[in-house]
Design goal:
The chain has about 150 residues and is α+β, with helices and mostly antiparallel strands. It has 2 domains: about 1-50; about 60-150. It is about 30% helix and about 30% strand. It contains 2 helices and 9 strands; from the N terminus they run E-E-E-E-H-E-E-E-E-E-H. The strands form 2 sheets. It has a 5-stranded antiparallel beta sheet with strand order 5-6-7-8-9, with helices on one face. Strands 2-1-4-3 form a 4-stranded antiparallel beta sheet, with no helix packed on it. Strand 6 (about 85-90) and strand 7 (about 95-100) form a beta hairpin. It is elongated. The termini are far apart.
């Protein structure tokens, strides 16, 4: 449950309402009983600091995802987002990393199914754990898989 400050669109009176899922979106109209108007009237959320911060965060997330998609498309790679991960699929393999963290740890689905050092099955392994930017990670993936395709 979440509390949001809302206002009646007819009399402009502000009141706090409690909402369950799905939560209203800023700018959306919904009907609630207004004590001043004595009837169900359209209401909308008031732009509070919390709502403004949520809107900014959503816009930044959308821009970040768009930049990742554009960078992947420039190399001909496909990507999809799963919670906090971006999964990049190439003709050779599949890669994933948390694009929110400043320190990227790239997970790689190995094309060779056996780890030659240990003899254990090697399905997914950590490629590296040094600090890299998102663009550097995508550049690395593209270069790695291009080399892999050229040397088959």
């Amino acid at each position: 449950m979440r509390d949001h400050m809302c206002k009646c669109l007819e009399c402009e009176e502000e009141k706090c309402f409690r909402f369950g899922r799905p939560y209203p979106v800023y700018g959306q109209h919904f009907y609630r009983y207004c004590a001043k108007c004595c009837k169900d009237t359209p209401h909308t959320m008031v732009l509070t600091k919390k709502i403004a911060a949520d809107l900014r965060r959503q816009e930044e997330e959308r821009q970040l995802q768009e930049s990742i998609v554009r960078k992947c498309e420039s190399y001909g790679l496909s990507c999809r987002f799963l919670y906090r991960l971006v999964i990049i699929t190439t003709p050779v393999s599949s890669w994933q990393f948390d694009y929110h963290e400043s320190r990227k740890t790239l997970l790689h689905e190995s094309t060779v199914k056996i780890n030659f050092q240990t003899g254990d099955p090697a399905k997914v392994h950590v490629q590296f754990s040094k600090k890299m930017s998102i663009n550097e990670v995508i550049d690395y993936i593209a270069a790695h898989d291009k080399w892999k395709q050229d040397h088959k």
